[in-house]
Amino acid sequence: MGDTKENYFINLEDEVVRGSILLQDGQLMWPPPPPKVQPAAPVKVTEAAKKVEPPPRNYFQETLKDASMYTGGLTGLVGFGMMAPNAAFTTMTTTLALSGIVGYHTVWGVTPALHSPLMYVI
User: Fold this and answer.
1) What's the helix, strand, coil split of the chain in %, to 5?
2) What is the pTM of this model?
3) What is the extent of the structural domain holding 4?
4) Is residue 13 part of a domain?
5) Which of 40, 43, 47, 99 shows the greatest Cβ crowding within 10 Å of its Cβ?
6) How far is CA 5 from the centre of its chain?
7) Is residue 78 part of a domain?
């Protein structure tokens, strides 16, 4: 709202400034007038844009990829467990790996709108 360090200029034409002013010279300025909304120009859709459809999702391929990744990871974990020095090490490593998988699916399974704005993924 200020243009210099000594003076303040209150521009009532600015929507943000106008919405933050409650009183001016003893006159109640609240609530502010509704914002001026200009309707958007209609979008012209061409024939090429109408006909282009994305290919259907291949759920089998997606599931196969996930299953292959988990199978490879767990196979590696079992192989790592066979080389482990003792059973406690294998137990801790298995717990860490499974908690990583569960944590990944828990975080990425949440609707993005529920994350904070800093974590929002588009």
Assistant:
1) 50, 5, 45
2) 0.37
3) 1-33
4) yes
5) 99
6) 38
7) no
